[in-house]
UniProtKB/TrEMBL annotation, chain A:
Belongs to the ABC transporter superfamily. One of its GO terms (molecular function) is ATP binding. This is Glycine betaine/L-proline ABC transporter ATP-binding protein. Residues 1-21 are annotated as: Disordered.
UniProtKB/TrEMBL annotation, chain B:
It comes from Arthrobacter horti. It is found in: Cell membrane; Membrane. Residues 169-348, 495-675 form the ABC transmembrane type-1 domain. The keyword Endoplasmic reticulum does not apply. The chain crosses the membrane at residues 41-57, 133-166, 173-196, 216-241, 288-309, 321-344, 377-400, 454-470, 499-521, 558-577, 621-647, 653-671. Belongs to the binding-protein-dependent transport system permease family. This is ABC transporter permease subunit. It is a multi-pass membrane protein. PROSITE patterns: ABC_TM1. Its main location: membrane. It comes from the Bacteria.
Length: 361, 685
């Protein structure tokens, strides 16, 4: 609920952070209120009302309320929440497809909220790209021309942009379909086109608004793997919107959970599952197989007196499921280290408690 | 008790304080019932008052004036005309604004005529003779619409020639073509602008509404006044009539481009211009072509009517035949117009379908204008060469320049039709006469008497009351203004006569449209059988409807009613059918599961739920009928239409004709607004 939860360094892939500490994206005090006279509400006590109260009192709807967070370079940052919680609005505020009511968004050191029209256009052309739930492809253009569109509007020569587009088409696995029209492709393939189109402009930040919700589960899993693979290959910063917790846990380095426009919790998948900030989040994560998410950090305990401390050594960010076999095989408790620091031990009981607990909730 | 009261009260209006006792509650509920029923109460009261006052006062204060009588207004309008005529030579506005437009358009039309249809002083035949024209048209259609359209066009154009209307047909094509090009030049940017700017849309929409409500007959005279009699005025009239559908459809097409796609494009940093050219226009392409098709059909329809102000083309022979009651001649020239309509409709539709396919092919093979397989390109090239040769030959040889006089299909067809009509009329005289007399005696005469024989002030109140009861305050306000205008024209009595005819025809239209529409709405098979017929009827220009009506019923008021009926039924029927079809299938299923009979289903579920569609059908029916009733002035329809026609032919009646045009407009706006507001109200609650 508070910004203090933000710990970019605790991210699994924090090592990727390249140039110093400057985050790829920084959001401070972002607000969006829809409705007539929305500007007049900010700064008054009304702004603190809950969404429902505000709506019945003023007819305005606070879609995003005072949201702040930072995303590190190369991080996959997932925003999740129920329908209507303001996710799409938030991601559109980042590129100013919707004008914010207050707050700042900084991408790559550029303040998006203050940018002039031309500046904003340059930012959109070069620094960020978005993938949409409903694809948003141009039906009258072939796949290759769809992918090249972003390059075309920023004025790149035909040969160069077609070559680049072809590269992207190959990258997302659509080779051979360059000359098809979108309506000749399946949903999954269309979204691959959307993905290629976004990647083609080589943006700093990739934004995804529920890109796979319109796809059926098998294809969705395919596409998730595809995003993982692409992230390994191109290492872009990604902001990923979803309402599917599995997806969030699978892709996210960190997860932001929203409710009624407000941040409820920000943390790594393990943090969120281990220490839900409130009942809303607890509800969300109750179905999650904890052993797939929790790391040893969350099961470790201080050694009991008399316990032998010469078992195998493991790092604290090992996922429980991955560590289980080894722990169970070892006759002594496993010693858990965070880097050089000794955190404690984990034995068979501790592991089983996690695994069994989720089967009999 | 208190909760019940407050619940009921909230319905009546939150401003009322909660009643203290139960008696007050009861009186409040009576009041609220009355308030809910006030429309019906008012309507009944107005009708009662009307009948009573009519019974007592009929024949007095009717403001009737004789056929040749002129009021001051009419004389003043005559003098306005004279002022215009003299201003034409010595006013800056005319010299620098109107005259260039007039000369430009006239010059363009004359130039095209000298190319394709008429000889000039120096050359008795057009530059390109009939063979060249046929070849050119065939090649163009083949290129843009395909082989089937090409055959259709070639056959139709040759038929025009064999009917004896070669020159008029090509003139009609020229006028239609020039109009559509001008409409596209003006209309496409307008439509785009309206799609992109809410303000532009809210300013221009009422203007387009007005342009579409105005009966075309009404603005012929004023435009002729400004642009002079001839092609320029005819083309401006035609533009006014055919521009709105193009603008609207363009706006609609651009507005309906998927918002997700637009958002995606914006997120990539496209400029407004890039978005328009690369995304919106290509995606709206199909819709825009439909707009062009509508525009073309409207242009053809109006171009024939513009014969009244000497617009060139097929309207001329129809008009002459109608005026001399020559059914055979009217039939042949009318048939030519119908063929032309079919030809243009089919061709533009085929071209639009082709354009979608072409857009896909074009990218694949960069072959310039002509997409598709190589073979096609070859054929088109060969076709171009052949057309060029034909043009050259027809330019050089008289026989290929002047359409051959034989075989003459026109005269035999005309006399055959005349004989057939004669036979039909003689054989069925009993039936047609009976029909005519019955409807006239049972509907037209009583209603006309009620409307036109009542004192004018009674009718003013009655119309106002009806407008208030049906359409609410705004409708009443419009009605007051329109009544004032009609009174101002000095043609109150004539207007009431026209209103009576219009109402009778509309009533018939609504009855037929409800019966047919319900039938179509309830059965897919019926719908697919009848809809193509209605579509075809709708493409026929209004003028042509007069021909069969005249043939069967001779020149009377009833003829105009029948023509108006036939003209109004297709559109109204389609609207009713769509309304019935639009009733949620879940609701229909639910009522079916409760054991509803078909009749109950129609009367209790489908009609009530689609009542706003029915009123909309009435609205469109009314406007169509009104425009036709007025044109009916040509065939003995009387009323305002006759005055308009007389105004064109007799110089001293010009002012009166112009006043009649204004009265028609006021009548049209009044009827339109009343029905529109009624439909809106019914749609709301
Ligand atoms: N243009 C708008 N005008 C008014 N209210 C809006 C507008 N756009 C969104 N809202 C409201 O803002 C709230 C948040 O909407 P948003 O689309 O951001 O939710 P979401 O989390 O993306 O939901 P979903 O998962 O259904 O996509 C919703 O209550 C929505 O009704
Ligand atoms: Mg959303």
């Amino acid at each position: 609920m508070s910004a203090s939860v933000i710990e970019p360094t605790s991210s699994r892939r924090a090592a990727r952070q390249e140039d110093g500490n400057r985050p790829a994206l920084k959001v401070e005090g972002l607000w969006k209120i829809f409705g007539p006279k929305a500007d007049k509400i900010l700064g008054t006590p009304d702004a603190q009302l809950s969404r429902k109260e505000l709506q019945s009192k003023t007819g305005c709807l606070a879609a995003v309320k005072d949201v702040s967070f930072e995303v590190a370079r190369g991080e996959v940052f997932v925003v999740m929440g129920l329908s209507g919680s303001g996710k799409s609005t938030l991601v559109r505020l980042l590129t100013r497809l919707i004008e914010p009511s207050a707050g700042t968004v900084t991408i790559d050191g550029e303040d998006v909220t203050q940018a002039s029209k031309t500046k904003l256009r340059t930012l959109r052309r070069n620094h960020m790209a978005m993938v949409f739930q409903q694809f948003g492809l141009l039906p009258h253009r072939k796949v290759i021309d769809n992918v090249a569109y972003g390059l075309e509007v920023r004025g790149e020569g035909k040969a160069a942009r077609l070559a680049r587009a072809q590269e992207m088409v190959d990258l997302v696995g659509l080779s051979g379909y360059e000359r098809s029209f979108p309506d000749q492709l399946s949903g999954g393939m269309q979204q691959r086109v959307g993905l290629a189109r976004a990647l083609a402009v080589d943006p700093e930040v990739l934004l995804f608004d529920e890109p796979f919700s319109a796809l059926d589960p098998l294809i969705r899993r395919d596409m998730q793997n595809e995003v993982c693979r692409l992230h390994e290959e191109v290492g872009k910063t990604m902001i990923f919107i979803t309402h599917d917790l599995q997806e969030a846990l699978k892709l996210g380095d960190r997860i932001l959970i929203m409710r009624d426009g407000e941040i409820v919790q920000i943390g790594t998948p393990a943090e969120v599952v281990a220490n839900p900030a409130d009942d809303y989040v607890r509800d969300f994560v109750s179905e999650v197989p904890r052993s797939h998410v929790l790391t040893l950090r969350y099961v470790v305990r201080p050694p009991r007196p008399g316990e032998e401390l010469d078992g195998p050594v493991m790092q604290a960010d090992r996922i429980v499921r991955d560590a289980a076999q080894q722990v169970l095989r070892s006759s002594q408790p496993v010693r858990v280290f965070d880097g050089e620091d000794f955190l404690g031990v984990v034995d068979d009981d501790d592991i089983l408690r996690v695994v069994v607990a989720e089967e009999a909730p | 008790m208190s909760t019940v009261t407050s619940a009921r009260e909230r319905k009546a209006g939150p401003a009322v304080k909660p009643p203290a006792s139960s008696t007050e509650a009861r009186s409040a509920s009576v009041l609220s019932t009355l308030r809910r029923q006030w429309r019906r109460t008012l309507l009944v009261a107005v009708v009662l008052l009307w009948v009573v006052l009519w019974a007592v006062l009929h024949g007095t204060q009717t403001l009737e004036i004789g056929g040749a009588d002129k009021t001051d207004v009419h004389l003043w309008l005559n003098s306005v005309r004279d002022a215009f005529d003299s201003a034409r030579t010595n006013s800056a506005f005319f010299e620098y604004v109107v005259q260039p437009i007039t000369d430009g358009v006239n010059g363009l039309v004359t130039f095209l005529q000298s190319l394709f249809s008429q000889g000039t002083a120096t050359r008795p035949v057009p530059q390109v003779g009939w063979l060249g024209v046929v070849a050119l048209l065939a090649w163009l259609t083949f290129t843009f619409a395909g082989i089937r359209s090409m055959i259709l066009v070639a056959v139709c154009v040759l038929l025009f020639g064999f009917f004896g209307y070669w020159q008029q047909s090509i003139d009609t094509l020229i006028v239609t073509f020039v109009t559509v090009v001008l409409c596209a030049v003006v209309g496409l940017p307008l439509g785009i602008w309206m799609a992109r700017s809410k303000r532009a849309s809210s300013v221009l929409t009422p203007v387009l509404d007005l342009m579409q409500t105005l009966p075309s007959f009404a603005y012929l005279a004023p435009l002729a006044l400004v642009f002079g009699i001839g092609p320029a005025a005819a083309i401006v009239t035609t533009i006014i009539y055919s521009l709105p559908p193009l603008v609207r459809i363009t706006e609609h097409g651009i507005r309906n481009v998927s918002p997700t796609t637009l958002e995606a494009v914006t997120s990539m940093g496209g400029t407004a211009w890039q978005t328009l050219v690369k995304v919106q226009l290509p995606m709206a392409r199909r819709t825009i072509v439909v707009g062009i098709n509508q525009c073309t059909m409207a242009a053809l329809s109006m171009a024939t009517i513009a014969a009244l102000i000497n617009g060139p083309g097929l309207g001329q022979p129809v008009l002459q035949s109608l005026q001399s009651l020559d059914v055979g001649g009217a039939f042949v020239s009318g048939l030519a117009i119908v063929l032309m309509a079919v030809m243009l409709d089919r061709t533009t539709t085929a071209a639009s379908e082709r354009s979608v396919v072409a857009a896909r092919f074009q990218k694949r093979s960069r072959s310039g204008l002509m997409p598709g397989p190589k073979r096609r390109v070859t054929i088109v090239t060969i076709g171009a060469v052949l057309a060029g040769v034909a043009v050259y030959l027809s330019h050089s040889y008289l026989a290929l320049a002047q359409f051959p006089a034989s075989p003459d299909l026109g005269s035999p067809l005309a006399s055959a039709v005349s004989n057939a009509t004669q036979w039909v009329v003689n054989t069925f005289a009993g039936f047609t006469g009976w029909l005519k007399d019955t409807v006239t005696a049972a509907l037209v005469d009583p209603l006309q008497s009620l409307l036109a024989q009542a004192p004018w002030w009674v009718m003013v109140i009655v119309l106002l009351g009806v407008a208030l009861a049906l359409g609410g305050l705004r409708a009443a306000a419009v009605t007051v203004v329109c009544e004032a205008v009609i009174l101002g024209t000095g043609l109150w009595n004539e207007s009431m006569k026209t209103l009576a005819t219009t109402l009778v025809a509309t009533l018939l239209v609504i009855v037929a449209a409800m019966a047919l529409g319900v039938w179509m709405g309830r059965s897919k098979i019926v719908d697919s059988a009848i809809r193509p017929i209605l579509d075809a009827l709708q493409t026929i220009p209004s003028f042509v409807y007069l021909v069969p009506a005249l043939a069967l019923f001779g020149p009377t008021r009833f003829t105009a009613i029948i023509a108006a009926f036939c003209y109004g039924v297709p559109i109204a029927t389609k609207l009713v059918a769509d309304g019935i079809r639009g009733v949620s299938p879940v609701t229909v299923e639910a009522s079916e599961s409760m054991g509803t009979t078909s009749w109950q289903m129609i009367s209790k579920v489908q009609l009530p739920m689609s009542r706003s569609a029915v009123v909309l059908a009435a609205n469109q029916g009314l406007l169509y009928v009104l425009s036709m009733v007025v044109v009916g002035g040509l065939v003995g329809g009387g009323g305002l239409g006759y005055l308009v026609v007389a105004g064109f032919s007799q110089s001293q009646l010009f002012g009166k004709g112009l006043a009649a045009g204004i009265a028609i407009t006021a009548l049209g706006v009044m009827l339109d607004r009343i029905t529109k507001y009624t439909a809106a109200r019914l749609g709301r609650d």
